[in-house]
């Protein structure tokens, strides 16, 4: 069994993929747009609660950060991404990498807990990126 996060960017998926490539070194495995689906498999407004997704938006994408695969989509491209009740944690090798990653993810976002040393980490901080995803960046102390 495997659990994979599936993030719905509501119209900003391609922008998010480029951002994570730049900030986290993400590798994009696949990007499928709604228009790429076979004609008989494209979602209709009736199937989607009265609103058909724009054909130029991302139906499904997969990208990797390190060994973790993350799935993503534009969803219905409503423009109202609402990432609440969870965060993503990224563990890095050392304090310098933690600070670099934290700063990069925070570009256009908001720091919710400044980077600092804690009893469990050489560096730990929380930031919400420009897409509304909360990230916990940690350079753990050896336990």
UniProtKB/TrEMBL annotation:
It comes from the Bacteria. InterPro entries: Glyas_Bleomycin-R_OHBP_Dase, PhnB-like. Residues 2-138 form the PhnB-like domain. CDD domains: PhnB_like (cd06588). SUPFAM superfamilies: Glyoxalase/Bleomycin resistance protein/Dihydroxybiphenyl dioxygenase. This is VOC family protein. Pfam families: 3-dmu-9_3-mt. PANTHER family: PROTEIN YJDN, PROTEIN YJDN-RELATED.
């Amino acid at each position: 069994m495997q659990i994979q996060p599936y993030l719905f960017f509501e119209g900003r998926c391609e922008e998010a993929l480029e951002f994570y490539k730049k900030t986290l070194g993400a590798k994009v495995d696949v990007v499928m747009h709604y228009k790429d689906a076979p004609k008989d498999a494209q979602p209709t407004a009736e199937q989607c609660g009265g609103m058909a997704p724009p054909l130029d938006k991302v139906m499904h994408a997969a990208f990797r950060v390190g060994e973790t695969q993350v799935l993503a989509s534009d969803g219905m491209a409503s423009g109202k991404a609402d990432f609440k009740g969870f965060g993503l944690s990224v563990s890095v090798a050392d304090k310098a990498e933690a600070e670099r990653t934290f700063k990069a993810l925070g570009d256009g976002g908001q720091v919710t807990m400044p980077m600092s040393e804690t009893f469990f980490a050489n560096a730990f901080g929380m930031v919400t990126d420009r897409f509304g995803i909360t990230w916990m960046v940690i350079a753990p102390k050896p336990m």
